[in-house]
Amino acid sequence: MDGTSTEPFSRAAGSTQAPLLSVKGVTLEYAAPGRIVRATQNVSFDVWEADRFILLGASGCGKSTLLKAVGGFLAPAEGQILLDGRPVTGPGSDRVVVFQEFDQLPPWKTIRENVAFPVRVSGRLGRKEALERADYYLEKVGLSRFAGAYPNALSGGMKQRVAIARALAMEPRVLLMDEPFAALDALTRRKMQEELLALWEEVRFTLLFVTHSIEEALVVGNRIALLSPHPGRMRAEINSHEWDLQSGGSPEFQSAATRIHRLLFDEAPIATEIDHA
Ligand SMILES: Nc1ncnc2c1ncn2[C@@H]1O[C@H](COP(=O)(O)OP(=O)(O)OP(=O)(O)O)[C@@H](O)[C@H]1O
């Protein structure tokens, strides 16, 4: 036993509630010149309220494309994506994406205005209330002191904290994160993982998080979907709620990571159902 449970997650098991997000048999394709590129094939998973659900797989297996489809930027060639039981038909403020690149903040706006801006243009709140909400989430990510500063005064990690505050200020149904820490140095990355978990403890948002790092998946997630190499198909689904940043070097953690590596890359037949072996 390596400590990685593959039992159905308790909140989902036996629950009569519908999942917040359902990805059902989703195949995603791009039309490239003269050919169709199939990015994912028949991918299914459910995300429940307050899950930290990870899409894990090798480069090119379609993780970002899946996130794009959940974001409503790409329609499935086959299958369906449901949010709160309703089909996703386009982008919406109930889903907000945080990307890897952290230079996305308009440099002429202060940090506070940057965070308040999407809330204000979405028409949810007036200027004053939007700025108050910005202050609330800047405090949550530890950046109150920089509210009046401009983005160029901030480090990469700080800019990513602003991007997270800006996304959370929209109070989305699901927060989508596409390798949000991959461009940061190792120490900052670890710190950001720690802060994201602390923030989740406080706010309990629902997270769909893309990574190709097995360690990051185990630490950040409570459930992990393992995708096969291109085109991405579900290899297995793993429960990982018992791991945190302190588990890092332990033999159990290492053996869980090894097992996931095997599940991801071994030439075993692709699971057609969730692997509870
Ligand atoms: N706009 C596009 N047009 C054509 N093919 C694309 C496009 N975007 C992605 N692809 C292809 O779709 C497949 C999945 O790409 P995707 O970026 O979703 O993978 P990924 O798992 O997120 O990879 P990475 O970890 O490297 O970001 C790849 O083969 C990629 O080349």
TrEMBL record:
SUPFAM superfamilies: P-loop containing nucleoside triphosphate hydrolases (SSF52540). InterPro entries: AAA+_ATPase, ABC_transporter-like_ATP-bd, ABC_transporter-like_CS, ABC_transporter_ATP-bind, P-loop_NTPase. Keywords: ATP-binding, Nucleotide-binding, Transport. The keyword ATP-binding applies. Residues 23-254 form the ABC transporter domain. GO terms for molecular function: ATP binding. This is NitT/TauT family transport system ATP-binding protein. It comes from the Bacteria. Belongs to the ABC transporter superfamily. The keyword Cell wall biogenesis/degradation does not apply. PANTHER family: ABC TRANSPORTER ATP-BINDING PROTEIN, TAURINE IMPORT ATP-BINDING PROTEIN-RELATED.
